[in-house]
Design brief:
The chain is about 40% helix and about 20% strand. It has 8 helices and 8 strands. The protein has an 8-stranded parallel beta barrel with strand order 1-2-3-4-5-6-7-8, surrounded by 6 helices. Helix 6 packs parallel to helix 7.
Length: about 190
């Protein structure tokens, strides 16, 4: 299952920050799940369940408990759980993850104009497979980052309605990540 094709069929990504909501994400029409919660012990089982449901899973590496921020932790993740990819804010982990043939999503936070400039430079140097931009509610920034990097962009954070989703997609995002279960069904 190809990431781009999945995003074209359904641009909504189920972000799971509570493993108690995993079943709801598995039953949703979302083809991609961002796993924002878990630990070194639970990840292999959770990733297996997601793959059994024929969905792609991207593990937010920075948020997983029990992992160091070193290359050996990525190797462990690859060998024991084998998710489709990782999400990280850490530039050095993008390079290491590519060595293990993970798809990579670089998460960037937009706080002010300086952070927009820094994010664009960072993404251009790391060349992740995709970007997750937060907050995703700023279509003008989504458009700029999308155009300047030419890398698929997923917007997340503070998106609360169908109108927010449509405006962000029209600005150039290929997808929307959200923990709001009601939006998974749009």
């Amino acid at each position: 299952m190809d990431f781009t094709a999945s995003m074209q069929r359904n641009p909504i990504v189920a972000s799971v920050n509570d493993l108690g909501r995993l079943d709801a994400a598995l039953q949703s029409p979302c083809e991609i799940i961002f796993l924002l919660k878990g630990d070194i012990f639970s990840i292999p089982d959770v990733v297996g369940r997601i793959h059994q449901a024929d969905k792609r899973v991207y593990v937010h590496f920075d948020l997983m408990e029990g992992f160091s921020r070193e290359q050996v932790a990525l190797r462990y993740l690859k060998e024991k759980a084998n998710p489709d990819g990782i999400i990280t804010t850490r530039v050095n982990l993008i390079k290491f993850a590519k060595e293990f043939e993970f798809s990579t999503i670089q998460r960037v936070f937009m706080l002010d104009s300086l952070s927009v400039e820094t994010a664009i430079k960072s993404v251009k140097s790391t060349r992740p497979h995709a970007i997750e931009l937060l907050p995703g509610i700023i279509p003008r920034v989504v458009k700029r980052v999308s155009q300047e990097t030419q890398i698929p962009l997923i917007a997340g954070g503070l998106i609360e309605s169908k109108e927010d989703i449509l405006a962000t997609l029209q600005a150039g995002a290929v997808g929307i990540s959200t923990t709001k279960e009601e939006l998974w069904y749009l």
